[in-house]
Amino acid sequence: MNAYDEKIVEILVKGNYVLEDDARKAAEYAETHRSTVTNYFLTENLLTRDLIGQAIAEFFGVQYADLNSHPPIREQAIKIPEDVAKKFRIVLFGEDENTAIVTTDNPKQDGLEEAIKKIFTKQKVTIAFSLPEDIATSFSHYREALDVRFEKIAKGEKKLAPEIIDEILDDALIYKASDIHFEPQEKQVLLRFRVDGILKEVGVLNKENYDTIINRVKVQSHLRIDEHFAAQDGAIRHITRENRVVDLRVSITPTLDGEKIVMRVLSEYISNLTLADLGFLPRDQKMILDASKKPFGMILATGPTGSGKTTTLYAILKLLNRPEVNITTIEDPVEYKIVGLNQIQVNTQTNITFSQGLRSIVRQDPDIVLVGEIRDEETAEIAVNAALTGHLLLSTFHANDAPTAIPRLLDMGIEPFLLASTLEVVVAQRLARKICESCRTSMVVKQEELEATLKNAKRYFPNPLTTLYKGKGCKACSGTGYKGRVGIYEFITVSKEMEALIQKNPSTGEVWELARKQGAHSLFEDGLEKVKVGLTSLEEVLRVAAPPEDEQPVENDKARTK
Fold this sequence. Notes:
The structure is a single chain. Helix content is about 40%, strand content about 25%. α2 crosses α3 (about 35-45), α10 (about 160-175) crosses α11 and α15 packs parallel to α16 (about 375-390).
């Protein structure tokens, strides 16, 4: 345990936020999982980020300033000169005519008070505490627009391509973009970020400089720089100026106006995620944890591309990653590089396919196996056999909902009795945008108003008046009303009754009928629970998970006959 973690544990125990036994377990978790003590407290739902922040603030004898929920606007932040802000890691949290609240992640540092008093000469200054990652995010206000920085780089003496790429990646991390798009057009190159599932334009590149940028990306991705008419895929491990490690998945495809680049940003989105962070309700966390503690069996995550399936499986692997366990993965591509895991990249040129790789893995004495995706009959058959012979197997599978996955696996040729014996949990998921906490507001909606938006609204909102939430739009969310995303989930657990049903080669409707009797909730219903507590909006849930026409989901596999 490092010095920072030791200090955190000391603060939390002294403040009675956690018991000494919890602190000991947190230290063991940090060591065995190569993680931090705060990750343990978050994973076990012992504390929230805000409680940790409040505990540290209490130790320093100052108030806690939640910059995540109440981020400063640019006009507010830049009142503190950039050099002073970054030297003392300070942010202006709020002010009026008489007082100013300045927050930092180190309230006791030498020279801090003197530096602040030189800036706020006519106001009484209060020093507060904020978490380090929130302080760093607030520094983004000092950055000029990308287009302005591009012009300065082009006029300067520094190497153009590396500087431009670094600026783009820095911004992508600040705005928590999941994808970066370089889109060549006739006279320019459009740069867009996908943030919270929505693409937005962030800048324009001069097309005459684009070739050098493409070549730089190809070299870093270990791709052929002389190939301009075929699609290529690669990966980059990028080290930021702050020495943060970021993994990027790179895809380059020729278009009519040039080669388009798309980078998927990977590492930033798994490092500290817990099941609770992903949106799993306590009952669902228990289902996942119970299934993952079994010595063998199969856990499947289903959903469309970009719905967070791999992230869910890696959050589970983080809980299982211990020195006494051999975890091996085969993926296409390897999305998250995790210390302690043996990760294999699919490579068709060397005959490392999912099926061939999985055959090899089961001879490597694994305890837990992650298969990036079950794509074909051969991979499905080997996966089921691996799960049957003493391995816990996790994988993704393309199906629109949880009950559809079972008939589709049977259609791939898996023997019903084998699937019934191995399958433990199927989880279907979607990602919905979260309402921005900085501008979230409540409103009372009449039932007839809901009926204009939602068919059968009375079934889901039986009261004449219902309190719902929305984001008004603010600087923190760029006026969208949304910031971040949350998962919505649908579970099927394989009970004894479900095992018996699977052996009868059931239809999707039959699977869902039994699951409903055993308490399963649909994607839409899980989304509604998050609507009612203000995590997301009804419109957003309807966008990603439309309600079924009736209690049965629409069958999207081919109709089955017995």
